[in-house]
Inverse folding.
């Protein structure tokens, strides 16, 4: 496993561990009595251990957004085909005629949304967000499985390692005063990387031989990368 892949693997391990803590936290917040009864069974009525366990649970509403942002970024790189599914469990549909257990999302829970009938009975509570979060956690675990399986994108890993080598070469050339040659190598690396990102996200391009500016503009318009400094093919290749 390359160093780059190892870093992704470690980050996913941490996200999964934090995800399980958040899952326990939201279950406790929504079902405190049942949850603590179960803990008493597990810890054999040891009140000190139960108290310590509850004390270490994170605040779901306070810590979920950080977890969500980090998990979303990793999934975008490791399992891009599932990114829209991951987001869908957080975002509620733009158009909802009513709110039910089926379309209640994690975002609703964070906002404290609860649906109550005219007689005061709660029809949809925060408990409806639990299965939505569980599905998000399942996708993060699937990303971990994909990273470790033989079906992972070995091309991306090998390409990244090759790019590191080429950048080291460019750096050596630049130090020796060969700025044009160093710039040309960096331009090729950037172009290959942008084209790989395009291919990973299955974005088609009409131009037969696209350059850096073509690829960057395409990825920006597809919301894959953020708008930033402009790159021109001539600038990057000339150094």
């Amino acid at each position: 496993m390359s160093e780059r892949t190892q870093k992704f693997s470690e980050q996913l391990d941490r996200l999964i561990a934090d995800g399980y803590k958040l899952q326990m936290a939201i279950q406790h917040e929504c079902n405190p009595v049942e949850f603590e009864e179960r803990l008493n069974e597990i810890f054999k009525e040891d009140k000190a251990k139960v108290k310590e366990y509850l004390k270490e649970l994170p605040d779901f509403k306070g810590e979920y957004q950080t977890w969500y942002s980090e998990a979303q970024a990793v999934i975008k790189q490791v399992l891009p085909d599932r990114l829209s599914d991951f987001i869908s469990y957080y975002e509620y549909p733009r158009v909802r005629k009513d709110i039910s257990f089926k379309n209640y999302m994690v975002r609703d829970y964070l906002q404290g949304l609860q649906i109550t009938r005219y007689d005061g009975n709660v029809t949809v509570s925060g408990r409806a967000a639990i299965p939505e979060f569980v599905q998000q956690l399942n996708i993060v675990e699937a990303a971990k499985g994909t990273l470790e399986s033989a079906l992972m994108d070995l091309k991306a890993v090998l390409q990244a390692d090759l790019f590191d080598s080429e950048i080291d070469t460019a750096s050596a050339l630049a130090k020796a005063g060969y700025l044009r040659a160093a710039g040309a190598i960096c331009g090729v690396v950037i172009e290959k990387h942008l084209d790989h990102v395009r291919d990973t996200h299955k974005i088609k391009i009409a131009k037969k031989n696209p350059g850096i500016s073509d690829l960057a503009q395409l990825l920006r318009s597809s919301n894959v990368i953020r708008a930033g400094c402009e790159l021109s093919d001539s600038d990057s290749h000339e150094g």
